[in-house]
Amino acid sequence: MKAFKLLMMALLLSGAVACNKYGTLRRVGDSPGGNFSNGNAANLIAGSLAVNSNGVAIVSSNVAFSSQSLADQHLPCGTTKKDTVNQQSAAGASATYSYMSTFSYTLNCNNSNQPDNTATSSVYNGSYSNANYSSTNSGSIIFTTSGLAPTSTQSVVNGEFKQAGTFQSKTTTTNTGTHSIDIVLQNLTFTKATCKIASGNATISVTGSSPNQGSFNYTGTLTFNGDNTATLVLNSVTYKIDLITGISTKI
In which element (H, E) is residue 219 found? Predict the structure, then answer.
């Protein structure tokens, strides 16, 4: 879909806060002992959220604004558009990613035959590498985007983001294994004029296994703060996550 590809290019070049800054993740909150720590789990979650690893922050942003572009084309209700997109980090970024994704958007209308929402599904595969972890993974999304009326200043995304794959620590050779992350978004709201997350919540689960540290299973909640950060509460431990850089800080 040409509009989607142009949007991706525009967001990367325009300086929009949700779409074009790259950074590194850092290790936080690790505890001694052989078990996979709460801090390690927080860093894996940060990787699945961050712009610099093609996480939820950038994927949901592009889906929201591509949905608006579809609605603005005045297409018939029920129209489905499909696209395949190769997504890569900016040249010279300190954290890198490369993903191939396929998207399917269906435009749904209200009783007045006006655009009401889009139902979006996607599958993806690829890898990312940052200061703490490298990961090869694949996954899927199922999103519903509302707020498509021309007079609306915000788009709202609800749905689920899944990721599963392998990870390797950059700081120790013993921290390696498999992981699965499930993020359920609740009213993730974007300001249309700024391409910025305004608010929202999510529930998160991360499971996996490390040959040297055993299996792990963590659950938590996420609050999007509206300032390019999110607050993660993971097994009663609180972290602040920078959604642009992916830095996770125990607070």
Answer: strand 214-224
Strands 237-242 and 248-250: antiparallel
pLDDT at 76: 95
What Cα–Cα distance (Å) separates residue 14 from each residue in 9, 21, 87, 92, 220?
Answer: 8, 11, 17, 17, 34
Please give the model's pTM, rounded to 2 decimal places. Answer: 0.85
Residue 219, CA distances (Å) to 6, 9, 34, 114, 243 in order: 37, 35, 20, 39, 19
Average pLDDT over residues 236-243: 94
pLDDT in tens, 220-234: 999 999 999 999 999
Which residues, 6 or more positions from 155, have their beta carbon under 8 angstroms from its beta carbon? 64, 65, 67, 68, 145, 146, 147, 148, 189, 190, 192
- 47 token code pair: 């990787």
CB distance 206 to 222 below 8 Å = no
What is the identity of the amino acid at 193? A
Work out whether strand 214-224 and strand 237-242 pair parallel, antiparallel, or are unpaired: unpaired
